[in-house]
Amino acid sequence: MGGLGNGRFCLTTTPLMSDWLFLSLLLLAVLSLPAAVACAVFFYRRGTAYVGWFGYNLLLLISAVLVYLLGLSVGIDLACVRYPSGNLCGLFGFLVSGPLASSLAIVLGSRLMTVADREPYNLSPMADGEQFSLGSLRAVQWYFSQNVGNLLTVPLFLFLTALFGLSLWGTLVQLGLLIAAFGALYGGVGIVTRLALTGLWGLVAVGPPVIYFLLLTYPAVAWTDWSLPWLGRLRNILFVLLMGWLTAQVLHTLSVRLLGWIIDHHP
User: Which residues fall within 8 angstroms of residue 129, CB to CB, at 6 or more apart?
Assistant: First the structure.
């Protein structure tokens, strides 16, 4: 039994999955790794890589390891903390969510680092003065088109993507807890009305995902600001990333505390 608040309201926890579902996901994870490697080889042979063979494999390895650690953390959190599933719950992270996340990273990374029937994307100042705008999904391509610089930009992309995904997941979990709390305390009829009264929580809770999404596109925007020297652009990127991360952490803490207060004190 798990709870949130001062004890007047508790959310029950149920097993995350049955044995057959775990075994099915385990089989999928085992098969996904060779399939991902095959996709990486296929994309490299079919297209033109932004980097050489060594850099291509090194970046995929870095991506796979980093995303495996992320998948491992999320899997253990799901199976052992949020939805306890027994003494061996940690195996879900090591054997299922980690390998699945690595396979996905290999497939997406190999696809983004190769091109077929087109020239690599040119981000030089002479590229018709093109610049990225904040929030543009096209900015994602910038991380994978820096040649040797990919050794820095690809891990940065994975890190920012992980922060965005985790913050979005956290917000959805809080929303689910809030809906479940209102449903348990007041019945289903008043859920929409009660949620409308928590507008302040909503504004605070959506802050971290929005900030991390904007931070995900900001490096491309700042680096293509050709009016500044490269050192000035780098300084701006580091400063905005740091301040954005701090702001998101503060908003996340506030949203969690607000959620607990609302559940405890909402009439």
Answer: 226
User: For residue 139, is it within any domain?
Assistant: no
pLDDT of residue 50: 61
**C-alpha–C-alpha distance, residues 3 and 133, integer Å:** 43
Asked whether residue 158 falls in the same domain as residue 47, the answer is no
Buried residues in 108-145 as b, exposed as e (16+ CB within 10 A)? bbbbbbbbeeeebeebeeeeeeebbeeeeeebebbbbb
- Using DSSP's 3-state secondary structure scheme, residue 84 falls into coil
Q: Which residues pair with 2 in a beta bridge?
A: 11
84 in a structural domain? yes
* Same-domain pairing of 81 and 30: yes
Question: What are the C-alpha distances in Å from 230 to residues 16, 119, 189, 233, 237?
Answer: 49, 25, 57, 5, 11
User: Quick one: DSSP state of residue 121?
Assistant: P
The dihedral over CA atoms of 234, 240, 246, 247, expressed in degrees to the nearest 10, equals -170
What ranges make up the beta strands (E) of 19-150?
48-49, 114-115
Beta strands at 2-3 and 10-11: parallel, antiparallel or unpaired:
antiparallel
Instruction: Give the range of the structural domain holding residue 30, as residue numbers without chain letter.
Output: 1-120
pTM of the model: 0.61
Scan for tokens 């091109």, then name that residue: 115
Asked, for residue 53, whether it belongs to a domain, the answer is yes
Q: Using one digit for the tens of pLDDT, what is the confidence trace for 163-203?
A: 887 788 778 878 877 777 665 555 444 555 555 556 777 88
Query: How many domains, the chain?
Result: 2
What is d(CA 262, CA 207) in angstroms, rounded to the nearest whole number? 18
